[in-house]
TrEMBL record:
Keywords linked to the UniProt accession: DNA-binding, Transcription, Transcription regulation
Organism: Mucilaginibacter ginsenosidivorax
GO molecular function, one term: DNA-binding transcription factor activity
Positions of the HTH araC/xylS-type domain: 193-302
Taxonomy, superkingdom: Bacteria
Lineage: Bacteria, Pseudomonadati, Bacteroidota, Sphingobacteriia, Sphingobacteriales
Gene3D superfamilies: Homeodomain-like
UniProt cross-references to SMART domains, sorted A to Z: HTH_ARAC (SM00342)
InterPro entries: Homeodomain-like_sf, HTH_AraC, Tscrpt_reg_AraC-type_HTH
Protein name: Helix-turn-helix transcriptional regulator
Amino acid sequence: MITNTSLEDFYHRNGASFHGETSKELGHFNVFEAEKLFNKATGERIMPYSRRAYYKISWLRGKSKAEYADKIIDIQKNALLFATPKIPYRWLPEDGNQTGMFCIFTPDFLSPGKSAVLLDELPIFQPGQVPVFQVSETEINEIEYIFRKMQRELDADYQYKYDLLRTLVLELIHYGQKLQPMLAISTAQNASERISSLFIELLERQFPLEPPHQKLGLRTAKDYADRLAVHVNHLNKVLKEVTGSTTTEIISNRIIQEAKILLKQTHWSVSEIAYALGYDAPAHFSKYFKKQTSFTPVAFRS
């Protein structure tokens, strides 16, 4: 199951003190020593599947696994992991000797006052990538130095410390982009069920739509494939095997279902419903709705 994890959820779950800067001008940034945090409710350190509202760069030391929709990456000793809000994953420690550090930051931290889309244009955050990198002891020393410097600067009173912290975050990103991604393990045995389940989770979390100015975020098969970091053809193949329907058919059926609910249970105009469901023109929505139901939206409502 995919959950949504906000900054507040992260701090509450890990029993951490809210520290660092949060504002529209600066965004949010913080850095942690991994062994000092754990799930306050369960006492565990497993990170469940989650769509996080922040980016995360982790230096991992110890045997563990990073599990994505259709792949599992075995971490034997040292790794550098980059996480984006768009791609859910979970991390599972496999022994009690887990150390390392990580930093979290919101999209607007690196580009204050600018579009956060710029961050997603970096190669390391592109959908379909495997953003986990095995690193040597020599590389770990260099990476740890950057993290420790972040920690020192965050606690300092230097007037321009956030400019310096942005530089250090970018240094880690470029460090990772020069490394070779780790090989993913095939998970054919249960990957189809996992991908199908995660797809349905993503689809259902688009609804209900409220208020009228909210617009459907994911509409196409490629939108969902990108979020799950799988190829769109693979997603289609898996869903056809598991459900008997294509990705597009499942999305379309759910959109029509939501359209019926909105027509019967709200006072939204047909134009507002069309906009919320991602149609640029009400006429396109009306034509599609009639094709699927044999009724126009107005006739169905009445």
